[in-house]
């Protein structure tokens, strides 16, 4: 499935200019049909899976309870 520049920017939570720059740097593969860039969505599967894992890890860390503070000063 091919996406436009705008759709790719939305998918990656980025700006269209940033995506266009990545295309020009050949970090994103794209076809130019004479009018617009067409980007294959399949090339982002690994990236999107890694982002989901990262979000889950961050969520897990944020939801972890804070351990009780031991009062070390009481020891003589």
UniProtKB/TrEMBL annotation:
This is Helix-turn-helix domain-containing protein. It comes from the Bacteria. NCBIfam families: excise. Residues 2-50 form the Helix-turn-helix domain. One of its GO terms (molecular function) is DNA binding. InterPro entries: HTH_17, SinI_DNA-bd. Pfam families: HTH_17. It comes from Cytobacillus horneckiae.
């Amino acid at each position: 499935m091919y996406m436009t520049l705008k759709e790719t920017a939305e998918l990656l939570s980025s700006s269209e200019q940033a995506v266009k720059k990545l295309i020009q740097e050949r970090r994103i593969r794209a076809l130019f049909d004479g009018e617009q860039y067409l980007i294959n969505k399949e090339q982002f599967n690994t990236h999107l899976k890694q982002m989901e894992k990262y979000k889950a890890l961050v969520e897990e860390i944020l939801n972890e309870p804070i351990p009780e503070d031991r009062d070390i000063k009481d020891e003589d």
